[in-house]
Amino acid sequence: MLNTVIIGTQWGDEGKGKIVDLLSEHADYVVRFQGGNNAGHTMVVNGKTFISHLIPSGIIQGKKCFIGNGVVVDPFVLLEEIDYLSSNEIDVSPDMLKISDRAHMIMPYHKAIDKAREEKKGDKKIGTTGRGIGPCYEDKATRRGIRFCDLMNVDRLKEKIKTILEEKNFYLEHYFNTTPIHCDQVISQVMAIRDRLLPYIADVSIALHTGHQNGKTLLFEGAQGTHLDVEHGTYPFVTSSSTVAGNAAAGSGIGPKYLKEIIGIVKAYTTRVGEGPFPTELFDGTGDILQKTGAEFGATTGRKRRCGWLDMVMIKNAARLNSLTGLVITKLDVLDDLDEIKICVGYQDNGNTLYEFPSDINTLTHCTPVYETHPGWKQRISDITRYEDLPENAKKYLDRMEALSGVPIKIVSVGPGRESTIIKESIL
């Protein structure tokens, strides 16, 4: 297998966890390069469900995993996840997991600000998970963040926390009218976990480069989806990091020339969690069927996902932004019982038809979808293991995705388990 990047093409929740788990078998290293514990990857292995928020999915396969410098890490959540996986007899020792010394730490004051900010916005909230991801990235950009390398020097760490909290507490008290955070309490909390964290810290950039030079194969695990990208997504209803394939290099410290295969994960319909425009959203019985049949609840928040028809304007946009070399279609089986299936091929906006994804949020909010209607296949496909055995109408639906996106489909998932996977074209 070539060095491969796995990217979500929609608004996240496309089923990346299963595909990363599937491909991890053929990789040596699995790398997370952006986001925080506002993302969740769900894997079903031998009937048992595992959900990871920070640790790359490859840990389930016994692969060496890395959390890159582009990730913001809540150290308390990380240790909870290590304990959870360890209790399920998965090796999450420092030999198997390394955290970049340049990765930024989500601190208690980040979460306090995140929650206070959403409460203050009221009906105008963004829909953040409240886990402190945005405020942590803010501190990173303004050069006042706490990095894992700061744990190496206790005196410097304490001084940085003290200086930062002077500003944060003024903000919390006088703008949000909420309770300040005591400096000694934060320092005490961090010092209580410091010794557990130290063995996991490494220069991930050097480790990945050395591994590649020694013939190791790298798999990069994206979080969220292309249209939650802070640069290219439905701003301001986006996440705080860059979710596109180009950030796999910047967020891990590996050179971009080493990224060879870029796979876009496409759910066979569209979902979104939280606020923001959604042109193909369904508010009828079909939307309810997709939500219930697809078990569409956020892996991180548990929030019910909004559901709608497949939007190929989005997928074409993701194909271009990420230089996709292949598609993986997930949850095709959720459509089994539908009489007809629609595909959005454009948007109507004030009498004009748009075929490219607009940058302006107001334009997108007022767009109405232009649909093609395709007949359903009306049969159960979750036991099918060969592409040629899929119903003709299912194959026509997939063929249309390829034609509209200009990207070949390589894998089709027809169920949550590893065994419910059809390999159309090998990427190994």
From TrEMBL:
Q: Where does GTP bind?
A: 12-18, 40-42, 305, 331-333, 413-415
User: Please, which domain of life does this record's source organism belong to?
Assistant: Bacteria
The record's listing under InterPro entries reads: Adenylosuccin_syn_GTP-bd, Adenylosuccin_syn_Lys_AS, Adenylosuccinate_synth_dom1, Adenylosuccinate_synth_dom2, Adenylosuccinate_synth_dom3, Adenylosuccinate_synthetase, P-loop_NTPase
CC annotations in GO: cytoplasm
How does the record describe its quaternary structure?
Answer: Homodimer.
Which residues are recorded as binding IMP? 13-16, 38-41, 129, 143, 224, 239, 303
The protein's name is: Adenylosuccinate synthetase
Q: Where is the signal peptide?
A: none
